[in-house]
Amino acid sequence: MKLKKPFILLLAMSLWGGSMIFADSAAQTVRVIVNGSVLDEGGIINDGKTYLPLRQLASSLQAIVAWDEQSKKVTLFKPNVHMFLFQDSKIFGNVDRGNKYTFNVFAQIDNLLTDISAVKVSIFDPSGRETVIDFKNINVSKDNFWYRTEDVKYNFDSSGKYAVRFFMKVNASDDWKLVSEKLISAQ
What InterPro entries does the record tag this protein with (predicted)? Predict the structure, then answer.
C-alpha cells in the first residue's frame, strides 16, 4: 500500500509530462520582432504554418485592419503616407528645447485601397502626452490625396523625441489607426 501512492503519483506526473511534450511539439510559440520591437503576443507554429496576432502586427506596420463580420473576412490595408513638416517654406525636424515653433504638416497619401472617413494629425511629447494638431471628417474614395494642416504653434519644453503621427479611420465608429510617424528631436 505504501508503494501504491508514489506509483500512482509517478504515473500521473509521467502522463502529464508526456502530454506537455506532445502539446509543445504540436504547436510551438515564437517571438515575433517587427522593426526591432518584440510584439507582446507571440506567434504560433502549428503543422508548419505560422499564425501571427494580426491586429498587433498591423499596428506595428502602421496598417489598417478592416473586419467584415458578415463575410468573416479580415483585410489589411497599408497606405503610403509621407509626411513633411514645414516652418514657413523650410522643412524642419530638429528643434531647440524650450522654444516655441510655428509649423504645419503636409502629408502625401497614395496606395489607399479603402475608403476612409476621417484623418487626424497629433504630436506626442517625449512622455507620451498627445496634442491634436488637426482632424477632419472627410470622404475620400480615391487611391491618393494630399492633406495639409493649418499652422500650429507648439512649445518643445523638454529634450527628447517628439512623434508627429498621422491617423485614419475607415468608419466613423472605428478607432484611430496610426498609418505614419515622423520624429522631431529636441535638444
Answer: Cu_amine_oxidase-like_N, Mao_N_sf
